[in-house]
């Protein structure tokens, strides 16, 4: 089911980040429904296919303190999406939910509920979590090694699918699952929604993650937005599809990206400068370094050079949820220090350069041309856009970029259906089952 090539957009709110600016007078708080309602309705006005919430199951803390320099937690994703379902009509509602710490019967029922209440607009972004430190919230410690997380994810998703399929045969149809890492017995709790079952997204980039996506996902949310990188990533995942009995039409690619746009390229560059400074406050810059250095760096001046001391290796191991293993921290710190010194960058300037989430900075027509190149290369089906600002961070895309893309014929002129599955151009649940039979 290949339609003529088009691009789509989704909204992506990370669970913890400093990429979205919440410090404007109009931003409100991440605990207020209103902040998200405005963004979701703007996205729907721009025919976005999905509103997507990342989720962290544990608040980030650092040296015993919850840091509140950016977003430290949000109301539960599914609860929030259920509320958004009531004030939107077409946009998909995607919840990031973890297969390592949830239980399949319960999560399958909750997702099925969101799917029914939104009349077929629910999606599930399947993650396994990259840090053991989340496990402490569940009194399970490290809980599962990386490979077992993906084994459990595969069994978890298969079990959820069985519950949803059984629901199509009738509520109460018995289901018994007895895999090694997932086992339960229980009747299908709910009937299917208008789209059959929630759309499955996947975010995870390791070899196991890619294989899992090729086997099970409808959409990959990737971290590969650069054009060449996106082409290579899609090629790598697509070559895995046949061994799972699937084709290219079964899997969509949505890399995460940020757009800073204006009428002209020069204005957009100026805006990007402002955005980056607002994203990376002096405290944020220091905190960006602290997980690598494994120590409190608050005595350092963000406008001065990078710390000339080495990291405390014991403090930065994977158990604490750092992105870096201890032994790499020393190397990383040295590399960063040398590269900042070579370019004459202060801590803040270095972090502004390093942490930039944005991929697209430019005038509307420049960026429309660039997006068209992505469409022609066939490497992405859409971009999962993190708004740079609440609440106005999508206005430029909706009012400036999308009309340009529509003129070029590479963006939809309307929602093609009422369900997320239809609007993403995915095969229907039954259609795929028939193909596989
Ligand atoms: C683009 C992207 C977004 C992600 N968002 C989340 C998230 O919101 N919550 C979360 O727990 N994990 C998130 N993850 C990480 C997943 O937990 C993933 O399962 C983890 O990285 C382990 O898989 P991997 O080793 O295959 O990357 C994200 C990963 C990627 C690539």
Report on this model:
It is built from 14 helices and 14 strands. The chain has an 8-stranded parallel β-barrel, surrounded by 4 helices. It folds into 2 domains: 8-262 and 357-436, Luciferase-like domain (TIM Barrel); 281-354, no CATH class. The two termini are 17 Å apart. It is an alpha/beta fold and 437 residues long. Flavin mononucleotide is lined by residues 15, 54-56, 96, 98, 127-130, 203-206, 208-209, 221, 223, 256. Keywords: Flavoprotein, FMN, Monooxygenase, Oxidoreductase. Pfam families: Bac_luciferase. GO terms for molecular function: nitrilotriacetate monooxygenase activity.
Task: Please sum up the structure shown.
The chain has 437 residues and is an alpha/beta fold.
Please outline the helices and strands.
Blueprint (H helix, E strand, L loop, with lengths): L7 E6 L19 H13 L4 E4 L7 E2 L2 E2 L10 H9 L6 E7 L5 H14 L4 E6 L18 H24 L4 E5 L4 E5 L11 E4 L4 H10 L2 E4 L4 H12 L13 E6 L1 E4 L2 H15 L2 H12 L32 H18 L3 H8 L5 E4 H14 L4 E4 L9 H13 L12 H4 L5 H8 L1
Parallel strand pairs: 1-2, 1-14, 2-5, 5-6, 6-9, 9-10, 10-11, 11-14, 12-13
Antiparallel strand pairs: 3-4, 7-8
Helix pairs in contact: 2-3, 3-4, 4-5, 8-10, 11-12
This protein binds flavin mononucleotide.
Organism: Microbacterium trichothecenolyticum
Family: Belongs to the NtaA/SnaA/DszA monooxygenase family.
GO molecular function: nitrilotriacetate monooxygenase activity
CATH level 1 name of the largest domain: Alpha Beta
**Strand order in the sheet with the most strands:** 1-2-5-6-9-10-11-14
The profile of the biggest β sheet is: 8 strands, parallel, barrel
Range of strand content: 5-15%
**How would you spell out the order of helices and strands?**
EHEEEHEHEHEEEHEHEEHHHHEHEHHH
Which fold name is given in CATH as the topology of the largest domain? TIM Barrel
Structurally, the number of domains stands at: 2
Tell me the radius of gyration.
22 Å
CATH architecture of the largest domain: Alpha-Beta Barrel
Q: Count up the helices.
A: 14
**Taking all residues together, what is the mean pLDDT?**
89
Low-confidence stretches: 315-324, 433-437
From the N-terminal CA to the C-terminal CA, the straight-line distance is: 17 Å
Q: How would you describe the oligomerization state of the chains in this entry? A: single chain
The small-molecule ligands in this entry are: flavin mononucleotide
- Structural class assignment: alpha/beta
Helix content: 25-40%
EC number: 1.14.14.10
Enzyme class: oxidoreductase
Keywords: Flavoprotein, FMN, Monooxygenase, Oxidoreductase
Protein name: Nitrilotriacetate monooxygenase component A
């Amino acid at each position: 089911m290949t339609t003529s090539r088009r691009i789509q957009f989704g909204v992506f709110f990370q669970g913890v980040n400093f990429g979205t600016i919440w410090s404007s007078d109009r931003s409100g708080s991440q605990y207020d429904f209103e902040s998200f309602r405005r963004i979701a309705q703007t996205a729907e006005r721009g025919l976005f296919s999905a509103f997507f919430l990342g989720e962290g199951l544990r608040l980030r803390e650092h040296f015993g303190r919850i840091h509140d320099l950016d977003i430290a937690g949000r109301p539960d994703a599914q609860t929030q999406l259920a509320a958004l379902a009531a004030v939107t009509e077409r946009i998909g509602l995607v919840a990031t939910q973890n297969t390592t710490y949830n239980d399949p019967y319960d999560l399958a029922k909750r997702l099925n509920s969101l799917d029914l209440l939104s009349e077929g607009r629910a999606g599930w972004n399947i993650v396994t979590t990259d840090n053991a430190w989340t496990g402490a919230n569940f009194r399970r410690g490290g809980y599962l090694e990386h490979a077992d997380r993906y084994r459990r994810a595969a069994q978890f998703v298969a079990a959820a699918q069985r519950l949803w399929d059984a629901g199509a045969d009738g509520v109460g149809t018995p289901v018994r699952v007895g895999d090694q890492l997932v086992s339960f017995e229980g009747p299908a709790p709910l009937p299917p929604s208008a789209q059959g079952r929630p759309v499955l997204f996947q975010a995870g980039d390791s070899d196991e993650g890619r294989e899992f996506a090729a086997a099970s996902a409808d959409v990959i949310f990737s971290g590969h937005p650069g054009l060449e990188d996106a082409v290579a990533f899609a090629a790598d995942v697509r070559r895995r599809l046949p061994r799972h009995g699937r084709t290219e039409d079964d899997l969509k690619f949505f890399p995460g990206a940020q757009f800073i746009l204006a009428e002209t390229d020069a204005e957009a560059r100026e805006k990007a400068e402002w955005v980056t400074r607002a994203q990376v406050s002096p405290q944020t810059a220091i905190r960006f370094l602290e997980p690598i250095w494994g120590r409190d760096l608050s005595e350092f001046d963000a406008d001065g050079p990078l710390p000339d001391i080495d990291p405390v290796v014991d403090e930065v191991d994977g158990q604490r949820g750092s992105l870096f293993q201890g032994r790499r921290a020393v190397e990383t710190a040295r590399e960063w220090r040398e590269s900042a010194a070579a370019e004459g960058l202060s801590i803040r300037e270095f972090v502004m350069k390093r942490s930039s989430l944005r991929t697209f900075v430019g005038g509307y027509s420049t960026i429309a041309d660039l997006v068209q190149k992505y469409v022609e290369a066939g490497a992405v089906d859409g971009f999962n856009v993190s708004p740079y600002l609440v609440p106005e961070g999508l206005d430029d895309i909706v009012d400036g970029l999308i009309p340009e893309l529509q003129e070029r014929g590479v963006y939809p002129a309307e929602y093609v259906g009422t369900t997320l599955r239809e609007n993403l151009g995915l095969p229907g649940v039954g259609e795929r089952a028939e193909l596989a039979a």
